[in-house]
């Protein structure tokens, strides 16, 4: 079994991108906030990184302010897949969400072919939504599913560090 790790910075900036996507409609409801906070606990984020998440939950942040320059190519792909998945949560990608995804792709340095490939992965992951009302569980399932899809076939264990 291959062990795939997702670092704290990748988890934090991916959550930040998801929050930014959630703010695309101009509001963030309490259920979304609570889920992101619970997910940040599951991912063992430090207090400093959780404080960053708290700030983004309170006030929308331009996607260009995400701290992605230190992320690996795999981590950037991970973040984009998660954001694309989030944009399809309601089965309808709003124009504002599409524009935000396009800006995120540019920020993450994704060319058109890679962006198309990652969008396909995100759409393939859509069945992860269980409809049980627990965004926390869905986010954790998503974060565990993406790395194996990015790596290809094989038996993988995902760990958050």
- How much of the residues is beta strand, in percent? 5-15%
Order of helices and strands: EHHHHHHHE
Number of helical regions: 7
Radius of gyration: 14 Å
What kind of sheet is the major sheet? 2 strands, parallel
Within the CATH hierarchy, at the fold level, what is the topology?
A: TerB-like
| Overall pLDDT level | 83
Distance between the first and last residues' Cα: 18 Å
Strand order of the largest sheet: 1-2
- Please give the domain count: 1
Give the CATH superfamily. TerB-like
Structural class: mainly alpha
Q: What's the architecture in CATH terms?
A: Orthogonal Bundle
Q: For this structure, what is the CATH class?
A: Mainly Alpha
Number of strands: 2
User: pLDDT under 50 segments (min length 5)?
Assistant: none
Shape: globular
Give helix % range.
55-70%
Could you give a quick summary of the protein structure above?
With 161 residues, the protein is mainly α. It has a single domain (2-160), classed as TerB-like (Orthogonal Bundle), CATH 1.10.3680. Helix content is 61%, strand content 6%.
Task: Provide structural commentary.
The protein is mostly helical and 161 residues long. It has one domain: Orthogonal Bundle (TerB-like). It contains 7 helices and 2 strands, in the order βαααααααβ. The chain has a two-stranded parallel sheet. The longest helix has 17 residues, at 135-151. The two termini are 18 Å apart.
Give the helix/strand layout.
Layout: E1 2-6, H1 8-22, H2 30-42, H3 47-58, H4 73-87, H5 95-107, H6 112-124, H7 135-151, E2 156-160
Parallel strand pairs: 1-2
Helix pairs in contact: 1-2, 1-3, 1-4, 2-3, 2-7, 4-5, 4-6, 4-7
């Amino acid at each position: 079994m291959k062990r795939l790790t997702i670092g704290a910075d990748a988890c934090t900036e991916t959550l930040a991108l998801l929050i930014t996507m959630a703010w695309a409609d101009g509001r963030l409801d309490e259920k979304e906030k609570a889920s992101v906070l619970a997910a940040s606990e599951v991912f063992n984020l430090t207090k400093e990184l959780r404080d960053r998440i708290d700030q983004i939950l309170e006030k929308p942040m331009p996607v260009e302010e995400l701290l992605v320059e230190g992320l690996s190519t795999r981590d950037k792909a991970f973040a984009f897949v998660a954001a694309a998945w989030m944009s399809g949560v309601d089965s309808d990608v709003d124009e504002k969400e599409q524009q935000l995804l396009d800006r995120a792709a540019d920020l993450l340095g994704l060319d058109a072919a890679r962006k198309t490939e990652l969008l396909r992965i995100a759409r393939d992951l859509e069945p992860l939504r269980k409809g049980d009302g627990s965004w926390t569980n869905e986010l954790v399932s998503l974060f565990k599913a993406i790395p194996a899809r990015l790596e290809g076939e094989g038996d993988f264990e995902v760990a958050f560090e």
